[in-house]
Amino acid sequence: MESKTTKSNNNNNKKKGETLSRMDLLKLFNDQLKQFFSQLIDLFSDDGDITNRTICADLIMINLFVSQLEASHVVNIFIESLLPLRSYVVERDENFFLDDSHSLFKDLNSSKVNFFKEIWLQLDDTNKIAIWKWFDSFLRLCDRYVSTNE
Asked: pTM for the complete prediction?
């Protein structure tokens, strides 16, 4: 797929040094997740290919589903599913997307989640690097959320 760089947003470090409340971290996490989905949707919406239009539609549906969940539930899904897979992200192991992506979105229908494999296989290296950076950001936010006691 032609590179239309998906930019990771590392704004979760903007307030580094500040102690953020759990509510602030929830908002920040969910804002980041919305931006992530928005950029993926933009990436696949410009291509007229039927497969990419289908991927785009699935991303929109997942984004809508996730946006209707309680913010704490979404973060807890990532905490329970992403933190145990940290080594995949840190080591940039593509099996994270090819084999284990379903565990991140366990509350979704499996047919709507397995398409992450399709997405990953279509991305160029620039967009893959950006997605890894997004997941680095999600890991940092989850770590901060877990370490914040309120």
From this structure: 0.78
